[in-house]
Amino acid sequence: MPVSSLPLGSGRGWRVDDFRCTSGPRDRPFEEQHDGMCIAIVTSGTFTYRTTQGTAVLAPGAALLGNHGHCFECGHEHGIGDHCLSFRFSPEFVESVIAELPGARQLAFTLPNLPPLPQLIPLVADAVAAREGSDTASFEELALSLVAKVGVALTGMSASARANPFARHPSHRDQRRVTEALRRIEAQCDQPLSLQQLAADVAMSPYHFLRTFRAVAGMAPHQFLLHTRLQRAAVRLRCSGDTICAIALEAGFSDLSTFNRRFRRLLGASPGAYRASRPCVLGVE
User: Which of 51, 80, 168, 283 has the most CB atoms in a 10 Å sphere around its CB?
Assistant: First the structure.
């Protein structure tokens, strides 16, 4: 089977499963249907998601959005496999959370996905750490926080961003090229990867690559590289007893001060404070 699913936790109105897919370009996508409201966090790999809300290429750190009862397809025409944490909610669960958010009254998702936004990095790191440590108890808190974060993010998105036609319909060739770059960044995020280098590797001019990358991934290449590094560092802070300096260097930062500044700016706390506020799920002191 190209897809495997492992239940990780469930409660009243929510459940979370660990999904692994090994499909590739030779495997034809098939139509599926969302059983409940779905928010799936991509933790590795890339794939194309098609639903009534639109089509998007999803990369690590992105959030797939699905409405209850809606049909969808996931394709891997540009690469092999992906790994996701799939949270499914009853409409009543989502509605109860959305009702508590100022200015957010939209129950149905109007977009197919959210890109790897800064406000999602701590949640992605916490979810991956919980999965690696089999920390079932924390998934209920994550489920509530995920709905709230996604609701706030959707409310804050501008109408112009939603209506940008180029962001919805890059060519098949451009999607393939950007997906190659996304997978390279994911595999080599600890290495120095310049815009010129990434563009040359997929035979695109730097400007066209930058514009197309933003349209496909929802952010610039350097932002995606930075988010990937910080997300991995956040997981390491939770799942290991390694020093902060060692984690920073392993993530691809050349010095500790730069790592501390970037980490604080995107995650809202210093690496030390972040680690102290989140006990290690693997029991490493």
Answer: 51
* Signed CA dihedral, 209, 211, 215, 219: sign only: positive
Contact between 252 and 189 under an 8 Å Cβ cutoff? The reply is yes
Instruction: Spell out the SS3 assignment of the chain.
Output: CCEEEEEEEEECCEEEEEEEECCCCCCCCCCEECCCEEEEEEEEECEEEEECCEEEEECCCCEEEECCCCEEEEECCCCCCEEEEEEEECHHHHHHHHCCCCCCCCCCCCCCEECCCHHHHHHHHHHHHHHHCCCCCHHHHHHHHHHHHHHHHHHHCCHHHHHCHHHHCCCHHHHHHHHHHHHHHHHCCCCCCCHHHHHHHCCCCHHHHHHHHHHHHCCCHHHHHHHHHHHHHHHHHHHCCCCHHHHHHHHCCCCHHHHHHHHHHHHCCCHHHHHHHCCCCCCCC
Residues 6+ apart with CB under 8 A from 228: 60, 61, 116, 185, 186, 189
Judge whether residue 273 has pLDDT over 90: yes
Please write the tens of the pLDDT for every residue from 136-147: 657 888 899 999
pLDDT at 139: 87
pTM: 0.83
Side chain identity at residue 170, one-letter code: P
